[in-house]
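ok so I'm stuck.
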Amino acid sequence: MKWMVTCCMALVAGCSSPASRTTPTYLPTRTEAQKQLEAAALGQAQEKCGQSGKVAVATQTANATTYECVSPEDPTYKSQQAAKPPQNPPQ
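replied:
not stuck anymore, here's the structure
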């Protein structure tokens, strides 16, 4: 009899509590997610290329971005750096 009351109480308590949310409250948009993935891939490419004294250059094709290790003196790398907007130093 005691176990029956205990089980019923546990069942009532378990069913009366609200369900917990396991999904995040913020999901990035498709564009934000794509930018995050590309930034991570570029970081990995830069790290890999840096081990051999080179730099990573991104090339965009139809729906993919490829990364290539080139010398810092390579014209492709210089043109990519010239196209970037200047970064403001923290004040």
